[in-house]
Each structure stands twice: as structure tokens, then as C-alpha cells.
Amino acid sequence: MQPKASVRGLPLYKPGKSLEEVKRELGLEDVIKLASNENPFGCSPRVWKALEEIKGEFQYYPEGAAPELREKLAEHLEVDPRRLIFGNGSDEIVQMLARTYLEPGGESVMADFTFPRYDTVTRIEGGVPVVVPLREGVHDLEGMLAAITEKTRLVWICNPNNPTGTIVSQDALSDFLDRIPPHVLVVLDEAYYEYVTDSTYPDSISLLDYNPQIIILRTFSKIYGLAAFRVGYGIAHPDVIAELERVREPFNVNRLAQKAAAAAVEDEAFVLYCRNQNRMGIKQMTEKFDEWGLSYFPAHGNFILVDTGHPADEVFQHLLHRGVIVRSGVHLGFPEHIRVTVGKKEQNERFLEELHAFLQKRGK
């Protein structure tokens, strides 16, 4: 039996190594993971209390429409509940978009170095990825606009971009959206939205009022610390949501995830704390990078892509064998960069110590 042609040869997604995997393979006990942009501070304590309330309900299917979460999130975002759709992580909504809007031969415009699932879901549907190079790590909106044809159906903008951490500004995005033809849907992937403190960052929900051809993707996996639960959401015009609902799996967001997310969204103090700690962590790291003469992209999420000046896999292996897991830039399109998640202060210190040891050994 052969899979359909569009699936043959697709590369497998390569996640960061897990704590369990490294401990098992290398026989280490003391390991820190700074590879997958997870929240080192965990989740709001309100989540645990909320989960206790449903410990007798595990035998029941969840409500597909996620009504409690929908109501609380709509109030938090100040949007019409009909503008929301939920997914098993925002990854699933990425898949829904491709399934809904791409036919064989349809085109999907994206940056060359960005979240790889945009490319994968496009290919699975028999679509054609149209790749536009980043400019200094930032989406080239003019280049993306020029790449749009009558076959284009989706344009993907990861903001902040993963893996570079850079952002597209409000003015640039507004101008771009004003020139998008009516047959194209623009996907604004804002997985790291809550971490951004830059005043030029777009207020995308306000843009949605004037641009019904956009969908905003966000997640509870990052600053809310609920990556294990897999729950993300999209915000769009009700007509777009109605079409996506046709392809959504009936019970795609489980009962535990819905309850956890509904509790997490109410704890704004926890989000603010994590945002502030993240900014201090970025400062802690970048001050050392500056001292050592290392270049890096401006960090607007909870990770930094830094140029080590050495083969990324060598740096990765050095750190790995010392119990510090980061991401090698080789599979991200940056062969001498590593992507490091911003951790707690002591985790950042340990990472910096081990990286400095490598650089001293190699003469940087």
C-alpha cells in the first residue's frame, strides 16, 4: 500500500529533546530543558483547583463547542463568541485552515524560515508552498504581497516569528492587509502574543474589525503553561469560523484542557508575572551575548536565536552532555545559531556558564 503522493517523502516534525529522553540516553539526573519555548514557571495554581472540580467527569466526552471556555475567553478578549474556534493546540487550527481552503495546486505563501507546519499542511493537501525569504529575520511583507497570485489561498505570518523571534509592526501589517486581494485569507499566528512588550506590535483584534480576511491564532501552550493539555484558538469573522467548524473533529479539545484553559485565562496576575520574568531573562542573556560579541535576533517571544559562530550541532551536543537542552539551528535554517528558551534565572545562569565554557574552549 502506498500513501497519497502529497504525503510521500514529507519530513517528520523534529521537536526539541524531552527531559526524559536525555536522562535516559545520557544517564543524567540533573537536566534543564530550554528547547521548546515552554513556560519555566508552569501554570496558574487556579488550574489545579479547577481540575479537582471535574475529577468525577473523566468518563464523559467534552462539549465540542467548549461553551465555558468560549464564554470566558470571549469576555477576556472582548470579542463576539461566534468569532472563536478551538483546537487541539493551535497546530490543529493550522491543519483545519489547510483542509478548508487548499485544493491541489492551490498556493500558500510563507516565509522561508518560520514554523514548519505551514509548509507541511500545505503539501498534505496537495498545495504549493510559495516561500519568501526573511529580511534580517523579519517577514518581507512586500515580497509576500508580490508572491500572491490568483492561485493563492493562504498567507502565513508568524508574529513573533519562530525561530527568529522578530515582529511585524502595526503600521507594516495594516498597510499589507489593505492591499490583500479578496480571495486570500491571511493567518496571523500569535503563539507568543502575551510575551510581547514592544509598542509597535499590532493590535490584531482591532485590525480584524476592518479586515474580515484574517484569522488570528493563539495558544495556551506558551505563557499560560498548558502545553501538555494542547489547547489553542482562532479569532476570525464568523463566516470563516463557520467554514472551519465543518472540518473540526467533534471532540477535539478534551474536557481537562477546556477546564484548565478556562481557569488559566482568569489569572491575569500570573501572565503579567511570567511576562516580566521573561523580559528580565532576555536581558540577563543578551547582556552576556553582547559581552562575548555574539549576535542575535531581537527577542520578542520567550526565546532567543543567537549566532554562536560555530556549527550549531557542536554547540548543541556540548550543552546536551552537560544537561542543558537547547535547539540546534541546523533544522531551523540557521546552521551556526542555537535557539534557547528563556528560563528561570538560575536556569539561564547554568546555560550561560556552559555556553561560555564552550566558547572559551573553541577560542571565541
Outline of the structure:
This protein is an alpha/beta fold.
Can you put this structure into words, describing what you see?
The chain is an alpha/beta fold. It contains 13 helices and 13 strands. Strand 3, helix 5 and strand 4 form a beta-alpha-beta unit. The N and C termini lie far apart (53 Å).
What distinguishing features does this structure have?
13 helices; single chain; globular; seven-stranded mixed β-sheet; 364 residues; 38% helix; alpha/beta; four-stranded antiparallel β-sheet; 15% strand
Secondary structure layout:
Elements: H1 19-26, E1 32-33, H2 45-52, H3 67-77, E2 84-87, H4 90-101, E3 107-111, H5 117-124, E4 128-132, H6 141-147, E5 152-158, H7 170-178, E6 185-189, H8 204-208, E7 214-219, E8 232-236, H9 238-245, H10 255-264, H11 268-292, E9 295-296, E10 303-307, H12 312-320, E11 324-325, E12 327-328, E13 337-341, H13 345-362
Parallel strand pairs: 1-11, 3-4, 3-5, 5-6, 6-7
Antiparallel strand pairs: 2-8, 7-8, 9-10, 10-13, 12-13
Helix pairs in contact: 2-10, 3-10, 4-5, 11-13
